[in-house]
Amino acid sequence: VGADFLDEAVLPREDYERFLAEGWRFDIFDGGYDFEDVVDALEEFKLREGHLDVPDDFVVPAEELDDDDDENAPAEVEDLDVALAAFLASSRADADDASLLGDAAASPFPGLADPDAEPTLAELEALEAEGARVGDGVVVGDAVSPRDAPWPENCRGLQLGAACDALRCGDASGREDLEKKAALDALGFDWGDPDVYVFGLRWHQFLGCIFSFSKIKGSLNVGWDFVVPHEDPWPAPYWGAPLGTWANEVRRQEPTFRRHFPERKRHLGLMGFRWLPAVFAAPAVAVDERLPPCLRLDPDDLDAPFRKKKRKKKAAPKKGKAAPPPLPTAGDVDVDYARYTVKVLKDLLRERDLKVSGKRKADYVERLANDDLERQAEAAAAAAAAAPTAAADDDDDDLDDEEDEEEDDDDDLD
Question: Is the pLDDT of residue 378 over 80?
Answer without folding.
Answer: yes
